[in-house]
Amino acid sequence: MENPGLVPLPALDIVGLGAHFGALSGTDAVERAVYEGTDTLRPLPPRRWRGLEQTTAGTLAAAGLAGADAPAGGYVDGVDIDPVDQKIPPSDLRTYNLQHALVTQVVDEALRDAGYSRAVPPGASAPPGRRVGVIVAMELEPYTSARLTRYTMGTFLRAQCEAAGVEIDGKVLAALGEVARDAVVPPIVANEVLSYIGNVMASRISSLWNLTGPSFTVSAEGSGTAEALQAARLLLLDEGLEAVLVGAVDLTGSAEHALLRPDALGEAGLAFADGAHGPRLGEGAGAVVLTRSDAPHGRRVHARLDALATGAAPAHEGERPGPDAAALATTARAALAEAGITAEAVGYVEAHAGGLLPDDLAEVTALGEVYRAPDGAETPEHERRTTALGSATAQFGSTGSASGMAGLLRAVLSLRHGYLPGTTGWNAPAPGFADALEASALYVPDRSRPWLRARAGERRHAAVSILGAHGAHAHLVLSGDATAGRADVTAFARARGPVLLALAADTPAALLAAVDAHAAALRDGADPLTLARAAARTLPGRSVRAVLTGRDGEELLRQAEAAARDLPGVFASGGEWATPAGSYATARPIGPDGKVALVYPGRLQLLPGARPGPLPRLPRPSGALRGAGRGTRAATARLAALPADPAHAGAARPDAAGGHAVAGRAVHARHRHLLRHPVHPPRTRGAGDHRARRLRLQPGRVQHVVRHRRVERGGPPRRPHQRHACLQGPPRRAPPHGP
């Protein structure tokens, strides 16, 4: 739908994110699941349906949904809240609405991510007021209909007593009815219905954070997120408003929703796939903080909302409107035109894919028409398939009012981290969708892969398709520039990288004492990351060192115990010590002038044992390596630690496509203070040049180490002094130059 006003709506920067879908609490957990392709579908948690699934003669049992037949889904089992922090009266805790608790959690995460704080200045009673609006997309709590029994309970009890021939006093009947009402269903509370009571959800958020902008909720089923975003764009035409918080929440994993979807599937998968079509139960909440992109705000930008077009399918002969492919395609083209790009510029499309056949057929047909493959039978397949396709529903299930927010967050996270999310289990499209997808430029990656750019400085573009009820729909266009590698170069913990514990002392005896002390701390349950950070501060000025690495505290403890056992003999013999996990120590370090090189495999090659691909987790290069396709022999890589496992390497992600150009080249690393051994690529294998001993490759471990004994012409062999840390085996041909 075209903007009816004369003032163009602004592009918006997304500066804050919050998410909780299924068992995934927090944006980091959601992003990790998106990258790894894991889903949130699981068996029904205890008490999620208030025990109704255990009844043997109720409505759920009649529908085949009771007991072990309850479907798997992306259920939210509970939400941790601090009543004091959230200013919840004790009397409200027993009936506190789960939707309100859930959206409050994601809103807090999004606002803090955007740089806002609830800290109260000295002498004040509330945080400083900020001109921030709050819009929440929500729906009626289905269990609210059960409250009707409170009004009919007295009549029901009187009829039952008369049928049983029991005479009962009116006062006794009234008291019995009061007890029965509370036993069957608690009183109605805020946020379970719409209108002014539902607005309490947004009002409480504004009150808690002292946000003085407009505050309200919207209800539009699956298109609620799009309507809330459109309202945010209109509000931000007021330059006095600094930001708008947009949230969405829906608990569509309830027993009532399960009765509406008795055919819900319990396995994750894209609804367009062969053998995987059908709805999936899911629930959750998400939130984003939006500011005008043309106004200076000084915050980190996750992505930019360039365009948003909404539409509705026309009604035919007075019937209720349904999904319409032509209307969907028109809306998508309008969004692309507003963003000023063509369909060819979009690298990723987030589909709704709700599992309802009419909706899915209309969506696939429309997307196939808009994102068409290049004409010509001679076009190579890799040039025809240029736009990746995925859906949040394949991972989280259908989350109702929050489904649009789930798709938006997936697209934003992909732009932020520079990868195209994969869909686990994809094999081929279902017959009804095959023709439309075959004629399109869309393809479904089965695992996440790097989102490379053709030119340095070029923005990545993604689109989000949103479908609501009765033909309502929307199309969003997003773009991103730099990725999160710039801000998170040391966040190896978030990427589940190994913990690197570097210990140093002045003497071997003191080093052994430090190993014993850290082993004792690990046995007592100390946090490995805290120990590693504290130990790193003791490194300067101490020359006797050992580096221990492990995925968690348990593995790190085993490495410490092995070091305590083996290091006395190593120092006595003047040798070196290494473990398959990557721990290392030597009695004869070469000093501070030694260099370390990380040698990556050829461009776009996969590492043995690494999943789903190493490139998004390579360290971020700086300076000369930025810019796609620009070759260089060396650059400085900012590393928190040397990764011990390519599958869980450090979380420093590339900040541009040039970050992937390091493949196949040696990169000097600035952690000579940790490892004091020179590392060089091997020379070309030849007679008398060098000999190598290879340790067998172990997936999931630091890859094999090659020791080289260089033989100079006309002289005796020199002692082994080079260590080459290989990730895919020694190259068959040496690089043209050393590091």
Can you characterise this structure?
The protein is α+β, with helices and mostly antiparallel strands and 739 residues long. It has 3 domains: 12-141 and 191-481, Peroxisomal Thiolase, Chain A, domain 1; 142-184, no CATH class; 499-586, Alpha-Beta Plaits (2-Layer Sandwich), CATH 3.30.70.3290. 28% of the residues lie in helices and 17% in strands. The chain has 19 helices and 24 strands. The strands form 5 sheets. Strands 1, 2, 3, 4, 5, 6, 7, 8, 9, 11, 13 and 14 form a 12-stranded mixed beta sheet that branches. The chain has a 4-stranded antiparallel beta sheet with strand order 15-16-18-17. A 3-stranded mixed beta sheet has the order 19-21-20, with no helix packed on it. Strand 13 (460-467) and strand 14 form a beta hairpin. Helix 17 (508-523) packs antiparallel against helix 19 (553-573). The chain starts with 11 loop residues before the first strand and ends in a 14-residue tail after the last strand. The model is unreliable at 485-490, 608-613 and 619-739 (pLDDT under 50).
Can you give keywords for this protein?
single chain; about 750 residues; alpha+beta; Peroxisomal Thiolase, Chain A, domain 1; Alpha-Beta Plaits; 3 domains; twelve-stranded mixed beta sheet; four-stranded antiparallel beta sheet; 24 strands; about 30% helix; disordered C terminus
